[in-house]
Amino acid sequence: MLPFDPDYDKEDYIMSIFPEGFLWGGATAANQCEGAWQADGKGLSTVDVIPYGPDRMPVARGKLRMLAPDDVHSYPAHEAIDMYHRYKEDIALFAEMGFKCYRLSIAWTRILPHGDDDTPNEAGLAFYEQVIDECLRHGIQPLVTICHFDTPIDLIKKYGGWKDRRMIDAYLKFCTAIFTRFAGKVKYWLTFNEINMLLHMPFMGAGILFEEGENETEVKYRAAHYEIVASAKAVQLAHKLMPDCMVGCMLAAGQYYPFTCAPEDVYAAMEADRDNYFFIDAQARGSYPVWAWKRMERAGIRLDCTEEDLAEMRRGTVDFISFSYYSSRCTSADPATVEKYKKPGNAAIMSLKNPHLQASEWGWQIDPIGLRVTMNTLYDRYQKPLFIVENGLGAVDKVEPDGSIHDPYRVDYLRAHIREMGKAIAEDGLPVLGYTMWGPIDIVSASSGEMKKRYGFIYVDKDNDGNGTLERRRKDSFYWYKKVIATNGADLD
Question: Residue 487: which of 28, 93, 97 has the closest Cα?
C-alpha cells in the first residue's frame, strides 16, 4: 500500500520502500584513496600530476600543462589514505557496517603502466583480485568503475589523451585485461565515471590539454564522442566475456532549475540539462539526439563520427543508469541575474545561488527533493534501472578529546536524501538497484585536493599538508548507517 492510502500500515510501508536485495554501500576512487602511486610497476596517471593548491583547477581544466610532478607542488594522490596497503582493514570496516556493495575503481596504469601495453602488469591484476576477493569474502558485491578520472600520462604524450581516436583501442585493451581476469567475480561495471565532467575539467576527465588557438568546444565534443564509442564497445565486450554482468553509464547529475518562471529562464535550464544528457542519451539510447546534431552544426563542430561508430553505439547501449547527486543547480538567461547570484558551489560546475536552499561549508547547495526530481527525470527519459553511486556531504569534522567524532550534520544530510530516494521507489515506482554513498571513508577531495573536506563514516587521521598517522576511527554516522543497512532503510532515525 502507498502512503496516500489512509488505511496503510506505517511500519509495513516503511519496510516495503526498499526492495529485497537492495545494494547499500559506499563508493571510492582509486586515485583518491589508494596512494602507492609508483608501487609495483604502476605508471603515471592524470591525478598523479594534479596538485593541491591554487594550480589545481587550472591543471584539471587543461589550462596549465603539467605532465609530471615537480618539487614545487604537493600531490595528495601520491599517498592518499594508503588504502593500497590497508584495504583489508578498510573492507572489514565496510563489512562491519553491513555493506552489500562497494564501488571501487581500477587504476588504468596499475594494469597497463603505459596505457596500451601488450601485456598487463600482473602485480596490478593481483592487487585488485585480492581486493575483490576480500569484498566477496565479506559478502560485499564489487561495483567496478573502469575509468575514474584516470588517463595514463604516456597516452597523453603519445595521442593527446581522448582527443585521439586511438584511445578507444587502448581503453579496450584495458577492458579486456580486467574483464578476463575478473569474470565471474564482478557483476556490476561502469564504463566512465561522471562522463560529462569532460566538459568542465577536460584534463582530469579525459587527459586533454588545450593548445593555443584550438577550438576548445570542438575538442571536448570530439573527445566525448570517442569515449562514448569506447563505452559502447566495452559494453559489448563485457556481455561477450561475462554474459551475466550488467554495465552502466555514470553521470554527474543534478537537475537545473530555472531561476524564475520566465520562459527564457526555463529554456536556459533545459539547455543546461542537455549538456549533461548529451552523453547519457548516446549511451542509453544508442544515438545522439537531434538537438545535439543541430547544436554542433551551429557551432561548426566536426565530430569525426563514422557510420561504424553509430552502429557500435546502437549495439552497445548500457543496462542501467548510474549517477552522482550532491545538489541541484540553478541558472538564468539574464546576464545581470547570473552575475548577481553566481555562486560556484562546486569548483567545476557553475550554479546560481538558489534562495530556497541552504549550502554546505563548501557552498554546495543542499536539496534532497532535487534527488527525487533528478531520479524521475532520468527514468522518464531512459526507462532503465537507476543506481545512485555517489551522494554525500563534505564537511569539517572535529575529533573530541576522547577520540569520538560527532557528525549529526552528515546524518541529517544522508537521512533526508535517503528518504527522498525511498519516495521515488515507493510512490513514483522507480526501479533502483542500490545506493553507494560517497565516500564511506575520508579520502582526498577530487575538486579541492583537501583532506579536511571529509565525507566518510570512517575518519582518517591526515590533514591537508599530509601530516597524520592514517589511523581509522568510527564516527557517529558509522553506527547510524549500520542501522540503516540492517533495517534495509526502515530505521533512519
Answer: 97
108: alpha, beta or left, given left = phi > 0 and alpha = psi -120 to 50? alpha
CA distance 457 to 88: 17
- Percentage with pLDDT > 70 across the chain: 96
Q: Tell me the sheet residues that pair with 105.
A: 145
Residue 390, amino acid: E
Cα 66 from Cα 80, distance rounded (Å): 20
3-state secondary structure of 206: helix
Structural domain contains residue 348: yes
pLDDT surpassing 50 at residue 11: no
**How buried is residue 15: exposed, middle or buried, by Cβ count under 10 Å (0-12/13-18/19+)?**
middle
Residue 1 lies in a domain: no
| Cell digits of residue 121 | 602488469
377-393 per-position pLDDT tens digit = 999 999 999 999 999 99
Closest CA to 410 of 350, 366, 470, 351: 366
Identify any residues that bridge with 152 across adjacent strands, giving them in sequence order.
45
Q: What is the tally of structural domains in the chain?
A: 1
450 is an active site residue: no
Range of the domain at 226: 10-486
- For residue 170, give the DSSP letter: H
**pLDDT at 2 > cutoff 80:** no
Contact between 384 and 450 under an 8 Å Cβ cutoff? The reply is: no
Residues recorded for the chain = 493
Residue 263 lies in a domain: yes
DSSP three-state, residue 63: coil
B/e letters for 357-384, b = 16+ CB within 10 Å, e = fewer, are beebebebbbbbebbbbbbbebbeebeb
Residue 163 has pLDDT above 80, yes or no: yes
**Tell me: the pLDDT tens digits for 99-150?**
999 999 999 999 999 999 999 999 999 999 999 999 999 999 999 999 999 9
The catalytically annotated residue of 211, 390, 400, 450 is 390
pLDDT tens for residues 208-244?
999 888 999 999 999 999 999 999 999 999 999 999 9
What's the DSSP call for residue 207? -
> Could you report the per-residue pLDDT of 414-449, keeping only the tens digit for each?
999 999 999 999 999 999 999 999 999 999 999 889
Rounded Cα distance between 18 and 434, Å, is 9
Is 4 within a domain? no
Report CA Rg, the chain: 22
Residues 273 and 331 sit within 8 Å (Cβ to Cβ): no
Q: What gap in Å lies between CA 127 and CA 285, rounded to an integer?
A: 35
Q: Distance between terminal CA atoms of the chain? A: 22
Q: Please state whether beta strands 23-27 and 432-438 pair in parallel, antiparallel, or not at all (unpaired).
A: parallel
CATH code (residue 363): 3.20.20.80
